[in-house]
Amino acid sequence: LVDVMLVLLIIMMIVAPLLQQGISVTLPKATNSVDKPETRGQTTIAISVDKHIYLNAKEVEDKDKLGEIVKRLLEDKAQDEKVVFIKADQGVDYGSVMAAMDQLRAAGIEDMGLITEKPAGTAAGGQQ
Fold first, then answer.
1. How many CB atoms are located within 10 Å of the residue 104 CB?
2. pLDDT in tens, 24-67
3. 57: alpha, beta or left, given left = phi > 0 and alpha = psi -120 to 50?
4. Distance CA 128, CA 41 (A)
5. pLDDT at 91
6. What is the layout of strands, in order, in the sheet containing 112-114?
7. pLDDT tens sequence across 59-116
8. How confident is the model at residue 128 (pLDDT cuts 50, 70, 90)?
9. Which helix (H) or strand (E) element contains residue 76?
10. Distance between CA 89 and CA 92 in Å, rounded?
11. Which of 55, 95, 104, 118 is deepest in the core (most CB within 10 A)?
């Protein structure tokens, strides 16, 4: 019975990282960032290096209507869940990220966060 439980534990440890939702992007590094765990209900916009925009891992066909689409998605959520997280590849130019943020602001969405990655070997708050 213990062997079976250990095998199940190993399988879960291998499969859990593969279930992570989202598009694979190389995140920019920032030393002064705050850890926030990813939850299933959060709204995430990913911008890939080839400037394709994904909303919760699904490609947005009409980039000009991004704000409207996100606004409709957030209508059903509680007030504390109306935050949009932006994951942009470090190779994406600044203008593309700002254009996406401008569309969200034009749609009335003010709570946004940029997802970054901490450099290896740094502690929280930028202390080493």
1. 21
2. 666 667 676 666 666 667 888 888 888 889 888 888 888 888 88
3. left
4. 33
5. 87
6. 58-59, 53-55, 43-47, 84-88, 112-114
7. 888 888 888 888 888 888 877 778 888 888 888 888 888 999 999 999 888 888 888 8
8. very low
9. none
10. 5
11. 104
Measured CA distances, 4 to 11, 18, 45, 74 (Å): 11, 22, 40, 43
Using DSSP bridges, classify how beta strands 43-47 and 53-55 pair: parallel, antiparallel or unpaired. Answer: antiparallel
Query: Which tokens in the block code for residue 112?
Result: 């946004």
DSSP β-bridge partners for residue 114: 86
End-to-end CA distance of the chain: 45
Query: What ranges make up the beta strands (E) of the chain?
Result: 43-47, 53-55, 58-59, 84-88, 112-114
CA 117 to chain CA centroid, nearest Å: 11
Written as one letter, the residue type at 9 is: L
Q: What is the pLDDT of residue 127?
A: 46
Q: What is the dihedral of CA 109, 26, 99, 68, to 10 degrees?
A: -40
